[in-house]
């Protein structure tokens, strides 16, 4: 029960109006998410919508350095969340994908690096790849791959590669079912 209280406390901190409390709560949430038993407890405590709300803050226009740091830290924390399938599904359920994709448009390279890290971690799972396709993210990822520095371009290309596997798996499954 003690761990659950810690998760609830961190989720409350993520929703704080105080930037210092938010920052400290992001660091603490990251520490909690690396432990498998705490990962589930954090999800149950509502970490996913709290992180989504942090991703939404200030993404409409140009970022100031404090917002950039917050977005980079939040995306890095989201990466830990979506690295496990249960977290990936929860992020999809709470509508996080469009907000993570929005971070790819930010001027901060740290924010874009963290967003690519999050997207690549989640792309291990079929539901996330399918959502990227449904979201219409492929043309934008192709454009980003052409515009980004080599390291980030490689991430965009890896995401594109993973997304093309959605159709191939679906088609091969369809052929197998027709042959049966």
Description of the structure:
The chain is mainly α and 180 residues long. Helices cover 81% and strands 0% of the residues. It has 11 helices and no strands. The protein has helices spanning 2-14, 19-33, 36-45, 47-56, 65-82, 85-93, 97-103, 109-122, 126-134, 137-147, 150-179. The longest helix is centred in the last third of the chain and has 30 residues, at 150-179. It is globular and about 40 Å long. The N and C termini lie far apart (50 Å).
Key terms:
180 residues; mainly alpha; disordered C terminus
Helical fraction? over 70%
Average pLDDT over all residues: 84
pLDDT below 50 for ≥5 consecutive residues: which ranges? Answer: 167-180
Instruction: Please count the helical segments.
Output: 11
Q: Write down the secondary-structure element order.
A: HHHHHHHHHHH
Q: What is the terminal separation in angstroms?
A: 50 Å
The largest sheet is:
none
Coarse shape: globular
Strand segment tally: 0
Structural class: mainly alpha
Rg for CA atoms = 17 Å
Percent strand equals under 5%
Write the topology of this structure.
Elements: H1 2-14, H2 19-33, H3 36-45, H4 47-56, H5 65-82, H6 85-93, H7 97-103, H8 109-122, H9 126-134, H10 137-147, H11 150-179
Helix pairs in contact: 1-2, 1-3, 1-4, 2-5, 4-5, 5-6, 5-8, 7-8, 8-11, 9-11, 10-11
